[in-house]
């Protein structure tokens, strides 16, 4: 009988420890309530998708979407910057080309001005020679006419 009493005591102790362990497990597996949200402490990627996991997943998805939009915006900005750089280089080349063309035209103008001056001096010399020849012709004509009258 003493053995039976000892066995009953052992069963009682075992059942109390088992019930304590199981209640601890139940408590740890049960959801705690924090700020009106349920939290499953054991949940990493729960099969049932508890509220916290879905909120975390939605938060991550929204952050990923936000980062994707930011990355797309950065890529668009980089493309715009590249196109503006190309446009700037083309404008610089056009500007250099225009400056070169302006310098060439200015040089042609200077050459033209020097040629104009040379033509003016030649014209003056030719006009002077023509005037001298005209005077000589007039003088020769007058002398010829005098000689003819005198004859």
Could you describe the 3D structure shown?
By secondary structure, this protein is mainly alpha-helical. The protein has two helices and two strands, in the order αββα. The chain has a two-stranded antiparallel sheet. The longest helix is centred in the middle third of the chain and has 100 residues, at 51-150. Residues 26-41 have low confidence and may be disordered.
Structure summary:
This protein has 151 residues and is mainly alpha-helical. It contains 2 helices and 2 strands; from the N terminus they run H-E-E-H.
Write the layout of secondary structure elements.
Layout lengths: L1 H28 L2 E3 L2 E3 L11 H100 L1
Antiparallel strand pairs: 1-2
What share of the residues does DSSP label as strand, in percent?
under 5%
Oligomeric state of this protein: single chain
Given helix and strand content, the structural type is mainly alpha
Please give the radius of gyration in angstroms.
57 Å
Low-pLDDT sequence parts: 26-41
Number of helices: 2
Biggest β-sheet, characterized? 2 strands, antiparallel
State the share of residues found in helices, binned by percent.
Answer: over 70%
Q: Tell me, rounded to a whole number, the average pLDDT.
A: 75
- Please give the alpha-carbon distance between the first and last residues: 196 Å
């Amino acid at each position: 009988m003493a053995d039976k009493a000892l066995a009953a005591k052992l069963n009682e102790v075992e059942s109390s420890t088992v019930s304590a362990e199981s209640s601890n497990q139940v408590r740890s597996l049960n959801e705690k309530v924090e700020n009106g949200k349920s939290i499953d402490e054991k949940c990493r990627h729960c099969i049932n998708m508890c509220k916290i996991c879905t909120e975390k997943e939605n938060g991550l998805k929204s952050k990923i979407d936000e980062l994707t939009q930011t990355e797309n915006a950065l890529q668009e900005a980089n493309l715009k910057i590249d196109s503006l750089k190309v446009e700037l280089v083309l404008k610089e080349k056009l500007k250099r080309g225009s400056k070169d063309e302006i310098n060439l035209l200015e040089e042609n103008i200077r050459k033209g001005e020097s040629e104009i001056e040379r033509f003016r001096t030649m014209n003056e010399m030719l006009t002077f020679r023509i005037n001298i020849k005209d005077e000589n012709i007039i003088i020769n004509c007058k002398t010829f006419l005098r000689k003819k009258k005198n004859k």
